[in-house]
Amino acid sequence: xxxxxxxxxxxxxGILVFVFFTFFYYSHLYYQEQLQLFLYxxxxxxxxxxxxxxxxxxxxxxxxQFYYFPWIGALIIALLLMLLQELVLxxxxxxxxxxxxxLLSFIPSVMYWSFLCDENAMLAGLVALNLTLxxxxxxxxxxxxxxxxxxxxIGSVILYYWVGGVYVLFIIFGVLFEIFRFxxxxxxxxxxxxxxxxxxxxxxxxxxxxxxxxxxxxxxxGMNYYRFPNTDFYSFMYMWVPIILVPLVFAALPSxxxxxxxxxxxxxxxxxxxxxxxxxxxxxMNFQKEEIMNYDFLVRGKNWPAIIKKAEKKIPKAxxxxxxxxxxxxxxxxxxxxxxxxxxxxxEGLLPTFQRDFTLPLVTNEIYYYLGFxxxxxxxxxxxxxxxxxxxxxxxxxxRLAETNLINGEYKVAEKYLKIxxxxxxxxxxxxxxxxxxxxxxxxxxxxxxxxxRKCRPEKDFLFSPAEKDMMLGTLFVHNKxxxxxxxxxxxxxxxxxxxxxxxxxxxxxxxIGYKRMPTSYRQALMYLDSHQ
Amino acid sequence: MKYSWFILSMYLCLVVSCNxxxxxPVYVARYPSIYPDYVGVTIPCRIAPLNFISTxxxxxxxxxxxxxDSRIHIQEDQVVDIPIKKWKKMLANxxxxxxxxxxxxxxxxxxRHYLPxxxxxxxxxxxxxxxxxxxxxxxxxxxxxxxxxxxxxxxDQTPIMENTLVRTSCLNCxxxxxxxxxxxxxxxxxxxxxxxxxxHGEGSERFMNTKVDSTLSSCVYPYWHPGGRYIAYSNNLTNxxxxxxxxERIEVVDKASDVVVYDTxxxxxxxxxxxxxxxxxxxxxxSADGKKLYFCSAEKKDIPAQYKEIKYSLCSIDFDAQxxxxxxxxxxxxxxxxxGGKSIxxxxxxxxxxxxxFTLSDYGNFSIWxxxxxxxxxxxxxxxxxxxxxxxxxxxxxxxxxxSNSHWFVFSSRRDDGLYTRLYISSIDKDGKATKPFMxxxxxxxxxxxxxxxxxxxEFVIAPVHVSTRNLNIGLMSKEREQFGMKKVE
Lengths: 533, 490
Prior knowledge:
The complex is a heterodimer.
Chain A: H1 2-24, H2 26-33, H3 42-49, H4 54-64, H5 70-95, H6 107-116, H7 123-139, H8 145-163, H9 168-180, H10 188-209, H11 216-221, H12 237-252, H13 259-284, H14 287-300, H15 304-313, H16 319-331, H17 335-338, H18 360-371, H19 374-386, H20 395-407, H21 411-421, H22 428-435, H23 441-446, H24 450-456, H25 469-479, H26 484-496, H27 500-507, H28 520-531
Helix pairs in contact in A: 1-2, 1-5, 2-5, 2-14, 3-4, 4-7, 5-6, 5-7, 5-12, 6-12, 6-13, 7-8, 7-9, 8-9, 8-10, 9-10, 9-12, 14-16, 15-16, 16-18, 18-19, 19-20, 20-21, 21-22, 25-26, 26-27
Chain B: H1 4-17, E1 26-28, E2 34-35, E3 42-43, E4 52-54, E5 60-66, E6 71-76, E7 79-80, H2 84-94, E8 98-107, E9 110-114, E10 117-121, E11 129-135, E12 146-151, E13 157-162, E14 170-177, E15 180-189, E16 194-198, E17 205-209, E18 223-224, E19 230-242, E20 250-263, E21 268-271, E22 280-286, E23 292-298, E24 312-320, E25 325-334, E26 343-349, E27 355-361, E28 374-379, E29 384-387, E30 397-402, E31 408-413, E32 422-427, E33 438-439, E34 454-461, H3 469-477, E35 482-483, E36 485-488
Parallel strand pairs in B: 1-9, 3-10, 17-35, 21-36
Antiparallel strand pairs in B: 2-4, 4-7, 5-6, 5-8, 8-9, 8-10, 11-12, 11-34, 12-13, 14-15, 15-16, 16-17, 18-19, 19-20, 20-21, 22-23, 23-24, 24-25, 26-27, 27-28, 28-29, 30-31, 31-32, 32-33
């Protein structure tokens, strides 16, 4: 039984990670999935693996696509963190077998768990670490020094192109094992390996820069570990240093021989790890972001009642969440009655202004889409995709682009996007289904969503003007007087900008909507107007 | 047992190499439907294999290419991938003649045999390669992009500069002196922005700040003087707007624009009042002999209210390269009134001095976003112009460039899907008639379908472009910029 005790701890740790990401942090995973587009085509594979560290990037992206179902994503993360811990334990024991210190091997995994709480931390970094440590395990197999030297020199070059900057750990471990385990560090072969390894660390990224265009810091540190390219690379040290330190601690610390000492040691380690987990997770977990992402997650799934229910429990205040809530209220026909039951942050909570980033335009595109501003929705979605800092594409956006082009009758472009989606795992079904609509005017017109939006989109062209949203909403509504959402957004816009004169003037336009009674917020606004006239 | 490996390998060789014979085909009296459409195109005797696919669903496609004294037989299940060595040999031997392509398609149990189609092989050579930008056809934000060179007799594409080197930068407006890669100018926009000018090949990069007090903006559209001393640029105050109605996307309009000429020898912008009027002057291009400067000019209008009223005419002014001076008057070669109230952009003179090719659209100058945009050609000997109907399509035709012998031209077109720009190459015969254009060959023609990039600003080059990536990185990341001087000339 003792033999399996350490694996049992690993399993418990894995379950904790799985539960955390499945039940408390799943929107982060869903958010990450939409910021990449994993394609099952040769060109995508070769484009990825031709970059330094590309193989880990490719494997990371492969796993990340499963975040589409957050529980699978949580399972993958749990398994990778468990693997990391097992590898660290194996390497530590390879220095010196010290079962009583085994809980220390959880430190790197706990650190990486906390790192993954950052929505921009990429899974490729974890894959790269695991691949590197597996490579170290392979390094330990040969018994002859020259074989290990050969493995180190060739392996580090291969590993650099597979995993990126983290390959340095492979060389460091190679040197450390020669010193602590094989005691061969002063032999000629080991010195060759050490000098060769050092030269590789210095020269390889420089050589790569002659044929691969990227910045030198990224070529040295790795380019797939974090979404933002100009990140503070030293933050990776927090993950990498414990991986080296833990085995060294195994080598340096004395063995505890009595059971009493072992028990004390065990509980000290356990509390230490728990404290570390509490501290680092506390630093990196962001439940405010989780809430914002959760609203977006529900919008993406068109789960309008759930959004309202969520807001009823805790009123959202973040601008993006307010915009999502207003959209949900409108979709459920409750906006005119209930929007002021919730916090409002002015017109930005209706139609947020465009920003050059990859999150806000993604949310705003949804609002313009359901309003019938198909071109604007398309633009916001496209811009969000182009703004993804690591130059990835987005499955969610390509799906939206296929839809907007379909609605606009741009069948060739829609077909292009659908063909791309056919090369994915989770958007394929949508692509196959939608492909049948291409060129089929009758089927599109009958489609509950696309057919309706076709009727809503403006026929007469005008240039988008962010300063005149009310004018645009008015034009949209005049084009189709059944477009209740356009009308309610126009009225809400006037109410939120305190333009009660325009509100009362345009109120009559709403007759075509067929309200059975005057909606609450409109009635209150009229009463206010009456009392102030 | 000892022969088993040999037998197995022989069996595998046979299985792999054996084609299924085309037996009892049904003859179809039309050309096969293939992508890209290479039926009846004219190609130079030095070009990459014209790989293609059938647009119909097929189980097998059997293709025979019959040249003057050689034959290539290919059988594939999807992409007709022509062996490059055999293709090159066939082209060399068939120059001035044609290759007959016979396509048979197997679907289900039977074969269909289509009418053989010709590919005409011209004796006129084409330049070494093409330089173009790859960029997603987006709006204001840009993701990965780069300027790439592509060797034309194979499929090799290499980056000249990508915006991974200097993150979040935008690269644009690359231009060469008469297709000579040693003289290069391109802009890098963003926090590390500069205009990079390279006059004497690799290692001669200069990183310039092109904005001077008297100009509207940094320099934009470049065009080299044939002598190599001057570069004409435009200065544009540009705005973008976005359409709401379907089938239209972006409107790029100038609120003001001028034309200036940069004297590389004296490091001075030559500012001529006749090129810096209230009217909108843009798209400068020197004539083949360097004695004229062509440009487009439009009457000033209220922007954005009257953006559809902006119509550019084609104008010219004399230029004295010896003294860096301009003529006294501006001539209008084609007035917008003469051309049905339409608008001219991308005036590009041929290097033999015979023609100017330009793009004509309903209004404005950013023709890539105008579906009606077509290519036109002006014969400078007769002064007559006409639409290049031989190459135009229902979708956008926009930027174009001449080969160094002025026999071939490349142009960007959105004919495939209405959005993603692809490159097409055509030739002009001695009567000024263009041949059916062919798409820039791709190793795998399907790859276009999965690409998020548009081809942009294609320019021929007569030899490989050599740029030091390291110098670019260091030069752009440093804040040091050479400042353009200026000189007002009458």
